[in-house]
From TrEMBL:
Ranges of residues in domain Thiamine pyrophosphate enzyme N-terminal TPP-binding: 14-108
Protein name: Thiamine pyrophosphate-binding protein
Organism: Streptomyces fuscus
Keyword Lyase: yes
Keyword Glycoprotein applies: no
Record-linked PANTHER family: SULFOPYRUVATE DECARBOXYLASE, SULFOPYRUVATE DECARBOXYLASE SUBUNIT ALPHA
Keywords (A to Z) from UniProt: Decarboxylase, Lyase
InterPro entries (UniProt xref): THDP-binding (IPR029061), Thiamin_PyroP_enz_TPP-bd_dom (IPR012001), TPP_dependent_decarboxylase (IPR051818)
Domain of life per record: Bacteria
Amino acid sequence: MLPKSSLAAGPGTEVAEILLNAFVTRGHSHFTGVPCSLLKGFFRLLEDPGCPAAYIPAPREDSALGVASGLAVAGARPVVLMQNSGLGYSLNVLTSFNLIYDVHLPLVVSWRGHGGNDAVEHDVIGRELTRLLDVFGLPWMVLDNAHPEDSVEAFLKQYDDGRSTAVLIVREGI
């Protein structure tokens, strides 16, 4: 659990804390990824010296998947964070390594462009995100910020039970 003095400020902070604590409680020890404005509170928590998990920044999403895959093969329980455009960029790594060799990871993916109210470069991936995940057989769930405990618990159960790469989509900033 995060010490009270380490809590990040801002909207969505409580949801970010719940998410982080749920992962850590379930044994996830390492986080890696590329920052996104919708996940900034979560990244603030990871960067805090009091964070109970290791955070390894990544320059690109495919690099984050590589780091997390290596950690998973070595026995750690990593989590990868990225925005949906980075997921699109990383599909080759997922399909040519993770899904083929059963190196499954939980992914936390921000949903930029959802509803068409974002920068224009996020429109296509924002509109097609869930269909893209379905095409590649990646189970997904949208984080419910109003009931984050239930949402995170259901996601982690889905991930743990299926032992497959699963995606938790963050639609609202945390």
